[in-house]
Amino acid sequence: MTKKLILESLANGIPAIHEDMVGYYKHSCMVCFHTQGYTSGVKFKVVREGMADTYYQICWTGEVTDELMRQYAGTSRKLNDYAPTTRTIDDAACAIALLLVRELTEYTAISKARIGTTVDYYLISKNKNTDLLFNEAEARLEVSGILSETKNNTVTARVKEKRERLAPEDMPTFIVIVEFSNPYAKVVKE
Predict the structure, then answer these.
(1) pLDDT at residue 51 is higher than 90
(2) DSSP the chain
(3) CA-CA distances (angstroms) from residue 174 to 65, 94, 170, 177, 183?
(4) Is the pLDDT of residue 79 over 80?
């Protein structure tokens, strides 16, 4: 049986995502999958080094409307010529990555990282009390999204680029690259 990742569950157990922001991340995912011809229940492969590939269904409620596309996808001069913006693609990738980290590791995202830290999120053990004021990050997460791989823009190349760019730290770092046209993610632990 294929496991499900429910986009609405971003509000459960991921302190870095406030419940008011779940719709934003969910809609970003919906738009990216929609532009690639997918609907709720899309089969999604997860590739991890040294492990067998695993499969999930990415599920959500709601429909993709023209109004939603206008909000999350940029248009050319032709108003119905939608293509997700870079921000929409990256935020959709973050949503998937945060769900995968929660599903595949002992961590969950506690906060976004500041610009310039070379990562996107800080992680903490899922069993820690996230209400404590002085919790410290125990791991890091770097995320990237690709709407559709090309010869010059591949998941493998993005992983390599992220590895080279990451500042060294004394904590585990996860890299998650999400591709939407042939839905899969590569998850790497440094």
Answers:
(1) yes
(2) --EEEEGGGGGSS-TTS-GGGHHHHHHHHHHHHHHTT--TTEEEEEEETTS--EEEEEE--S---HHHHHHHEEE-SSTT-EEE-HHHHHHHHHHHHHHHHHHHSSEEEEEEPPTTSS-SEEEEETTS-TT-TT----EEEEEEEESS-BTTB-HHHHHHHHHHHPPP-SS-EEEEEEETTTTEEEEEE-
(3) 34, 12, 13, 10, 19
(4) no
**Tell me: the pLDDT tens digits for 98-119?**
999 999 999 999 999 998 888 9
pLDDT (0 to 100) of residue 158:
96
Q: Is the pTM of this model over 0.70?
A: yes
Q: What is the mean pLDDT of the chain?
A: 91
Domain housing 127: 3-189
Counted domains in the chain: 1
